[in-house]
Design a protein that fits this description.
The chain is of the alpha+beta class. The strands form three sheets. A four-stranded antiparallel beta sheet has the order 2-3-7-6, with no helix packed on it. Strands 1-4-5 form a three-stranded mixed beta sheet, with helices on one face. A two-stranded antiparallel sheet has the order 8-9. Strand 8 and strand 9 form a beta hairpin. The two termini are 37 Å apart. The mean pLDDT is 96.
Length: 381
Amino acid sequence: MIQRTIFDSDLEGFRDTVRKFLEKEAVPFHAQWEKDGQVSRELWTKAGEMGFLCPTAPEEYGGLGCDFRYSAVIMEEISRSGCSGIGWPLHSDIVMPYILNWGTEEQKQRYIPKLISGELISAIAMTEPGTGSDLQAIKTTAKKDGDHYVLNGSKTFITNGQMADLVIVVAKTDPTKGAAGISLLLIEKDMPGFSKGSNLDKVGMKAQDTSELFFDDVKVPVENLMGGKEGTGFMALMQELPQERLIVALCALAASHAAIGWTKDYIKERKAFGKPICKFQNTRFKMAEIITETDALQVYTDRCLELHLDKKLTIPTAAGLKQITTDLQCKVMDECVQLHGGYGYMTEYPIARAWADSRVQKIYAGTNEIMKEIVARAELG
Protein backbone atom coordinates (compact mmCIF):
# COMPACT_ATOMS: atom_id res chain seq x y z
CA MET A 1 0.00 0.00 0.00
CA ILE A 2 1.26 3.48 -0.88
CA GLN A 3 2.12 5.46 2.25
CA ARG A 4 -0.69 7.87 3.07
CA THR A 5 0.49 11.40 3.87
CA ILE A 6 -2.78 13.04 4.89
CA PHE A 7 -2.64 11.76 8.49
CA ASP A 8 0.14 13.00 10.78
CA SER A 9 1.49 11.29 13.91
CA ASP A 10 -1.18 12.85 16.14
CA LEU A 11 -3.91 11.44 13.94
CA GLU A 12 -2.26 8.03 13.81
CA GLY A 13 -2.12 8.07 17.60
CA PHE A 14 -5.81 8.92 17.62
CA ARG A 15 -6.42 6.06 15.20
CA ASP A 16 -4.73 3.65 17.60
CA THR A 17 -6.98 4.86 20.42
CA VAL A 18 -10.11 4.39 18.31
CA ARG A 19 -8.98 0.94 17.17
CA LYS A 20 -8.32 -0.26 20.71
CA PHE A 21 -11.68 1.11 21.87
CA LEU A 22 -13.54 -0.75 19.12
CA GLU A 23 -11.61 -3.97 19.77
CA LYS A 24 -12.66 -3.83 23.42
CA GLU A 25 -16.12 -2.26 23.33
CA ALA A 26 -17.59 -3.31 19.97
CA VAL A 27 -15.97 -6.28 18.25
CA PRO A 28 -16.75 -8.84 21.00
CA PHE A 29 -20.42 -7.83 21.06
CA HIS A 30 -21.20 -7.20 17.42
CA ALA A 31 -22.48 -10.71 16.69
CA GLN A 32 -25.08 -10.29 19.44
CA TRP A 33 -25.96 -6.83 18.16
CA GLU A 34 -26.62 -8.36 14.75
CA LYS A 35 -29.17 -10.65 16.40
CA ASP A 36 -30.63 -7.71 18.34
CA GLY A 37 -30.84 -5.53 15.24
CA GLN A 38 -29.03 -2.61 16.90
CA VAL A 39 -25.98 -1.75 18.93
CA SER A 40 -26.20 -0.90 22.62
CA ARG A 41 -26.85 2.61 23.88
CA GLU A 42 -23.97 2.08 26.25
CA LEU A 43 -21.61 2.08 23.26
CA TRP A 44 -22.88 5.53 22.30
CA THR A 45 -22.39 7.01 25.75
CA LYS A 46 -18.91 5.49 26.04
CA ALA A 47 -18.06 6.94 22.64
CA GLY A 48 -19.27 10.33 23.84
CA GLU A 49 -17.02 10.11 26.88
CA MET A 50 -14.06 9.33 24.62
CA GLY A 51 -14.75 12.25 22.28
CA PHE A 52 -15.59 9.98 19.35
CA LEU A 53 -18.97 11.59 18.63
CA CYS A 54 -19.05 14.82 16.61
CA PRO A 55 -15.29 15.48 16.91
CA THR A 56 -15.59 18.40 14.46
CA ALA A 57 -18.16 20.23 16.61
CA PRO A 58 -16.86 23.64 17.80
CA GLU A 59 -15.59 24.01 21.35
CA GLU A 60 -18.31 26.57 22.13
CA TYR A 61 -20.85 23.73 21.98
CA GLY A 62 -18.71 21.29 23.96
CA GLY A 63 -16.90 19.74 20.99
CA LEU A 64 -13.23 19.23 20.27
CA GLY A 65 -13.12 21.49 17.23
CA CYS A 66 -11.13 18.93 15.23
CA ASP A 67 -10.84 18.97 11.46
CA PHE A 68 -12.64 16.37 9.36
CA ARG A 69 -9.62 14.03 9.30
CA TYR A 70 -10.49 12.94 12.84
CA SER A 71 -13.94 11.91 11.66
CA ALA A 72 -12.31 10.11 8.72
CA VAL A 73 -10.14 8.11 11.12
CA ILE A 74 -13.17 7.06 13.19
CA MET A 75 -15.22 5.91 10.22
CA GLU A 76 -12.25 4.09 8.65
CA GLU A 77 -11.66 2.19 11.87
CA ILE A 78 -15.33 1.27 12.16
CA SER A 79 -15.23 -0.12 8.62
CA ARG A 80 -11.91 -1.88 9.20
CA SER A 81 -13.31 -3.59 12.30
CA GLY A 82 -16.34 -4.95 10.44
CA CYS A 83 -18.67 -3.39 13.01
CA SER A 84 -21.17 -2.16 10.47
CA GLY A 85 -23.90 -1.56 13.04
CA ILE A 86 -22.24 1.54 14.48
CA GLY A 87 -24.09 4.60 13.19
CA TRP A 88 -21.71 7.27 14.44
CA PRO A 89 -20.71 8.68 11.02
CA LEU A 90 -24.29 9.59 10.14
CA HIS A 91 -24.85 11.08 13.59
CA SER A 92 -21.55 12.96 13.79
CA ASP A 93 -20.82 13.94 10.22
CA ILE A 94 -24.21 14.25 8.56
CA VAL A 95 -26.80 15.25 11.17
CA MET A 96 -24.60 17.44 13.37
CA PRO A 97 -23.26 19.49 10.41
CA TYR A 98 -26.81 20.20 9.24
CA ILE A 99 -27.61 21.71 12.62
CA LEU A 100 -24.27 23.52 12.85
CA ASN A 101 -24.40 24.97 9.32
CA TRP A 102 -28.12 25.55 8.92
CA GLY A 103 -29.63 25.74 12.41
CA THR A 104 -30.42 28.75 14.52
CA GLU A 105 -28.17 29.57 17.45
CA GLU A 106 -30.87 28.31 19.81
CA GLN A 107 -31.05 24.99 17.92
CA LYS A 108 -27.27 24.61 18.06
CA GLN A 109 -27.20 25.28 21.81
CA ARG A 110 -30.12 22.94 22.43
CA TYR A 111 -28.99 19.91 20.45
CA ILE A 112 -25.27 19.82 19.63
CA PRO A 113 -23.97 19.30 23.21
CA LYS A 114 -26.30 16.32 23.60
CA LEU A 115 -25.20 14.87 20.26
CA ILE A 116 -21.58 15.14 21.41
CA SER A 117 -22.25 13.32 24.68
CA GLY A 118 -24.40 10.60 23.12
CA GLU A 119 -27.37 11.64 25.23
CA LEU A 120 -29.21 12.11 21.94
CA ILE A 121 -28.89 9.67 19.03
CA SER A 122 -29.81 11.25 15.72
CA ALA A 123 -31.04 10.40 12.23
CA ILE A 124 -32.02 12.20 9.05
CA ALA A 125 -35.20 11.24 7.21
CA MET A 126 -35.08 11.92 3.47
CA THR A 127 -36.17 8.79 1.60
CA GLU A 128 -39.83 7.95 1.18
CA PRO A 129 -41.61 4.87 -0.18
CA GLY A 130 -41.68 5.31 -3.95
CA THR A 131 -39.36 8.32 -4.22
CA GLY A 132 -35.86 6.85 -3.79
CA SER A 133 -33.21 9.33 -4.91
CA ASP A 134 -35.76 11.87 -6.22
CA LEU A 135 -35.90 14.24 -3.26
CA GLN A 136 -38.08 16.76 -5.09
CA ALA A 137 -40.83 14.12 -5.31
CA ILE A 138 -41.29 13.74 -1.55
CA LYS A 139 -44.87 13.83 -0.28
CA THR A 140 -44.32 14.52 3.43
CA THR A 141 -45.83 17.91 4.23
CA ALA A 142 -45.54 20.41 7.06
CA LYS A 143 -48.35 22.97 7.09
CA LYS A 144 -47.99 26.00 9.31
CA ASP A 145 -50.78 26.49 11.83
CA GLY A 146 -50.11 29.40 14.18
CA ASP A 147 -47.09 28.69 16.37
CA HIS A 148 -46.47 25.20 15.00
CA TYR A 149 -46.33 23.05 11.87
CA VAL A 150 -48.54 20.01 11.31
CA LEU A 151 -46.34 17.25 9.89
CA ASN A 152 -47.79 14.36 7.89
CA GLY A 153 -46.13 11.63 5.88
CA SER A 154 -43.75 8.70 6.15
CA LYS A 155 -40.10 7.90 5.57
CA THR A 156 -38.27 4.62 5.01
CA PHE A 157 -34.76 3.13 5.15
CA ILE A 158 -33.81 5.52 7.95
CA THR A 159 -30.43 4.69 9.52
CA ASN A 160 -30.44 4.97 13.34
CA GLY A 161 -34.22 5.10 13.01
CA GLN A 162 -35.10 2.80 15.90
CA MET A 163 -32.74 4.40 18.38
CA ALA A 164 -33.10 8.01 17.24
CA ASP A 165 -34.07 10.63 19.80
CA LEU A 166 -33.80 13.44 17.26
CA VAL A 167 -34.65 13.25 13.55
CA ILE A 168 -34.14 15.85 10.85
CA VAL A 169 -37.16 15.43 8.59
CA VAL A 170 -37.27 16.64 4.99
CA ALA A 171 -40.76 17.97 4.25
CA LYS A 172 -42.61 20.31 1.92
CA THR A 173 -43.75 23.49 3.63
CA ASP A 174 -45.03 24.81 0.29
CA PRO A 175 -45.81 22.02 -2.22
CA THR A 176 -46.44 24.59 -4.98
CA LYS A 177 -42.81 25.71 -5.13
CA GLY A 178 -41.03 22.45 -5.95
CA ALA A 179 -37.48 22.37 -4.55
CA ALA A 180 -37.91 25.90 -3.19
CA GLY A 181 -40.75 24.65 -0.98
CA ILE A 182 -38.68 22.02 0.85
CA SER A 183 -37.73 22.63 4.48
CA LEU A 184 -36.03 20.72 7.31
CA LEU A 185 -37.70 20.18 10.67
CA LEU A 186 -36.22 18.87 13.92
CA ILE A 187 -38.45 16.15 15.35
CA GLU A 188 -38.04 14.77 18.86
CA LYS A 189 -38.95 11.18 19.67
CA ASP A 190 -41.70 12.00 22.20
CA MET A 191 -43.71 14.32 19.95
CA PRO A 192 -47.31 13.01 19.73
CA GLY A 193 -48.10 11.50 16.35
CA PHE A 194 -44.51 10.47 15.64
CA SER A 195 -44.08 6.69 15.53
CA LYS A 196 -41.53 4.16 14.35
CA GLY A 197 -42.17 1.02 12.38
CA SER A 198 -40.41 -2.25 13.02
CA ASN A 199 -36.69 -2.57 12.52
CA LEU A 200 -36.30 -3.43 8.82
CA ASP A 201 -34.90 -6.88 7.99
CA LYS A 202 -31.97 -6.25 5.63
CA VAL A 203 -29.65 -8.50 3.63
CA GLY A 204 -26.62 -7.03 5.41
CA MET A 205 -25.76 -4.47 8.08
CA LYS A 206 -27.84 -6.50 10.50
CA ALA A 207 -26.73 -4.56 13.58
CA GLN A 208 -27.56 -1.19 12.03
CA ASP A 209 -31.08 -0.23 13.08
CA THR A 210 -33.00 0.91 10.00
CA SER A 211 -36.63 1.90 10.21
CA GLU A 212 -39.76 3.32 8.71
CA LEU A 213 -40.92 6.52 10.40
CA PHE A 214 -44.50 7.78 10.46
CA PHE A 215 -45.85 11.29 11.08
CA ASP A 216 -49.55 11.64 11.80
CA ASP A 217 -50.53 15.26 12.52
CA VAL A 218 -47.32 15.81 14.48
CA LYS A 219 -47.34 19.30 15.99
CA VAL A 220 -43.87 20.73 15.50
CA PRO A 221 -43.10 24.05 17.21
CA VAL A 222 -42.01 26.77 14.77
CA GLU A 223 -38.71 27.02 16.63
CA ASN A 224 -37.95 23.49 15.33
CA LEU A 225 -37.87 24.71 11.72
CA MET A 226 -34.21 24.38 10.74
CA GLY A 227 -32.67 27.83 10.59
CA GLY A 228 -36.02 29.45 11.29
CA LYS A 229 -36.63 29.93 7.56
CA GLU A 230 -38.79 27.97 5.14
CA GLY A 231 -37.58 26.81 1.75
CA THR A 232 -33.91 26.32 2.57
CA GLY A 233 -34.06 22.52 2.86
CA PHE A 234 -33.13 21.57 -0.69
CA MET A 235 -30.20 23.98 -0.74
CA ALA A 236 -28.96 22.52 2.56
CA LEU A 237 -29.27 18.98 1.23
CA MET A 238 -27.30 19.77 -1.92
CA GLN A 239 -24.51 21.52 -0.02
CA GLU A 240 -24.14 18.81 2.63
CA LEU A 241 -24.31 15.80 0.30
CA PRO A 242 -20.66 16.01 -0.88
CA GLN A 243 -19.46 15.29 2.67
CA GLU A 244 -21.92 12.42 2.95
CA ARG A 245 -20.60 10.92 -0.28
CA LEU A 246 -17.00 11.38 0.84
CA ILE A 247 -17.92 9.47 4.02
CA VAL A 248 -19.26 6.59 1.93
CA ALA A 249 -16.05 6.54 -0.13
CA LEU A 250 -13.76 6.54 2.90
CA CYS A 251 -15.71 3.65 4.40
CA ALA A 252 -15.65 1.78 1.08
CA LEU A 253 -11.86 1.94 0.85
CA ALA A 254 -11.32 1.01 4.50
CA ALA A 255 -13.63 -1.99 4.15
CA SER A 256 -11.83 -3.03 0.95
CA HIS A 257 -8.42 -2.90 2.63
CA ALA A 258 -9.78 -4.99 5.51
CA ALA A 259 -11.21 -7.61 3.13
CA ILE A 260 -7.92 -7.83 1.26
CA GLY A 261 -6.09 -8.33 4.57
CA TRP A 262 -8.40 -11.16 5.66
CA THR A 263 -8.03 -12.80 2.26
CA LYS A 264 -4.24 -12.56 2.27
CA ASP A 265 -4.19 -14.44 5.56
CA TYR A 266 -6.65 -17.06 4.34
CA ILE A 267 -4.96 -17.87 1.02
CA LYS A 268 -1.60 -18.31 2.73
CA GLU A 269 -3.06 -20.90 5.14
CA ARG A 270 -5.57 -22.69 2.91
CA LYS A 271 -4.09 -25.53 0.85
CA ALA A 272 -5.34 -27.23 -2.30
CA PHE A 273 -3.57 -29.87 -4.39
CA GLY A 274 -0.73 -29.92 -1.91
CA LYS A 275 0.16 -26.23 -1.79
CA PRO A 276 -1.20 -22.93 -0.40
CA ILE A 277 -3.74 -21.43 -2.78
CA CYS A 278 -1.72 -18.20 -2.79
CA LYS A 279 0.71 -20.06 -5.06
CA PHE A 280 -1.84 -20.50 -7.86
CA GLN A 281 -1.61 -17.97 -10.67
CA ASN A 282 -5.32 -17.15 -10.71
CA THR A 283 -5.24 -16.33 -6.99
CA ARG A 284 -2.13 -14.20 -7.36
CA PHE A 285 -3.48 -12.28 -10.36
CA LYS A 286 -6.87 -11.64 -8.74
CA MET A 287 -5.21 -10.37 -5.57
CA ALA A 288 -2.74 -8.22 -7.52
CA GLU A 289 -5.63 -6.62 -9.40
CA ILE A 290 -7.75 -5.68 -6.39
CA ILE A 291 -4.73 -4.58 -4.34
CA THR A 292 -3.57 -2.23 -7.09
CA GLU A 293 -7.04 -0.83 -7.78
CA THR A 294 -7.69 -0.25 -4.08
CA ASP A 295 -4.34 1.48 -3.58
CA ALA A 296 -4.95 3.70 -6.60
CA LEU A 297 -8.39 4.75 -5.42
CA GLN A 298 -7.08 5.38 -1.91
CA VAL A 299 -4.75 8.02 -3.33
CA TYR A 300 -7.64 9.62 -5.23
CA THR A 301 -9.90 9.48 -2.18
CA ASP A 302 -7.26 11.09 0.01
CA ARG A 303 -6.93 13.88 -2.55
CA CYS A 304 -10.69 14.42 -2.38
CA LEU A 305 -10.40 14.52 1.41
CA GLU A 306 -7.76 17.24 1.04
CA LEU A 307 -10.10 19.17 -1.25
CA HIS A 308 -12.87 18.84 1.30
CA LEU A 309 -10.64 20.18 4.07
CA ASP A 310 -10.03 23.21 1.83
CA LYS A 311 -13.79 23.48 1.09
CA LYS A 312 -13.15 22.76 -2.58
CA LEU A 313 -14.79 19.34 -3.01
CA THR A 314 -17.47 19.86 -5.66
CA ILE A 315 -20.78 18.05 -5.97
CA PRO A 316 -19.80 16.24 -9.23
CA THR A 317 -16.40 15.20 -7.88
CA ALA A 318 -17.94 13.79 -4.71
CA ALA A 319 -20.58 12.00 -6.75
CA GLY A 320 -18.00 10.39 -9.02
CA LEU A 321 -15.89 9.42 -6.03
CA LYS A 322 -18.83 7.75 -4.30
CA GLN A 323 -19.70 5.80 -7.44
CA ILE A 324 -16.24 4.51 -8.30
CA THR A 325 -15.21 3.57 -4.75
CA THR A 326 -18.40 1.67 -3.97
CA ASP A 327 -18.28 -0.15 -7.30
CA LEU A 328 -14.74 -1.20 -6.40
CA GLN A 329 -15.77 -2.19 -2.87
CA CYS A 330 -18.38 -4.59 -4.21
CA LYS A 331 -15.87 -6.02 -6.70
CA VAL A 332 -13.29 -6.53 -3.96
CA MET A 333 -15.78 -8.23 -1.67
CA ASP A 334 -16.96 -10.54 -4.44
CA GLU A 335 -13.43 -11.53 -5.44
CA CYS A 336 -12.45 -12.12 -1.82
CA VAL A 337 -15.49 -14.30 -1.17
CA GLN A 338 -14.60 -16.32 -4.26
CA LEU A 339 -11.03 -16.81 -3.07
CA HIS A 340 -12.34 -18.06 0.27
CA GLY A 341 -14.33 -20.72 -1.57
CA GLY A 342 -17.25 -22.23 0.34
CA TYR A 343 -16.01 -20.71 3.60
CA GLY A 344 -16.49 -17.26 2.10
CA TYR A 345 -20.23 -17.91 2.18
CA MET A 346 -20.26 -18.77 5.87
CA THR A 347 -21.24 -15.91 8.18
CA GLU A 348 -18.69 -17.03 10.78
CA TYR A 349 -16.08 -15.59 8.43
CA PRO A 350 -15.87 -11.77 8.39
CA ILE A 351 -15.64 -11.68 4.60
CA ALA A 352 -19.15 -13.12 4.27
CA ARG A 353 -20.65 -10.42 6.48
CA ALA A 354 -18.60 -7.69 4.79
CA TRP A 355 -19.79 -8.90 1.38
CA ALA A 356 -23.42 -8.62 2.47
CA ASP A 357 -22.81 -5.28 4.18
CA SER A 358 -21.15 -3.75 1.13
CA ARG A 359 -23.98 -4.02 -1.39
CA VAL A 360 -26.03 -1.14 -0.03
CA GLN A 361 -23.12 1.25 -0.52
CA LYS A 362 -24.03 1.52 -4.22
CA ILE A 363 -27.60 2.47 -3.26
CA TYR A 364 -27.69 4.94 -0.37
CA ALA A 365 -26.45 8.54 -0.42
CA GLY A 366 -27.84 8.54 -3.96
CA THR A 367 -27.68 5.48 -6.20
CA ASN A 368 -24.60 5.06 -8.36
CA GLU A 369 -26.76 5.63 -11.42
CA ILE A 370 -27.69 9.06 -10.03
CA MET A 371 -24.01 9.72 -9.30
CA LYS A 372 -23.17 9.08 -12.97
CA GLU A 373 -25.94 11.44 -14.03
CA ILE A 374 -24.58 14.20 -11.77
CA VAL A 375 -21.13 13.82 -13.34
CA ALA A 376 -22.58 13.68 -16.85
CA ARG A 377 -24.62 16.85 -16.35
CA ALA A 378 -21.56 18.71 -15.07
CA GLU A 379 -19.31 17.56 -17.90
CA LEU A 380 -21.73 17.24 -20.82
CA GLY A 381 -24.58 19.58 -20.00
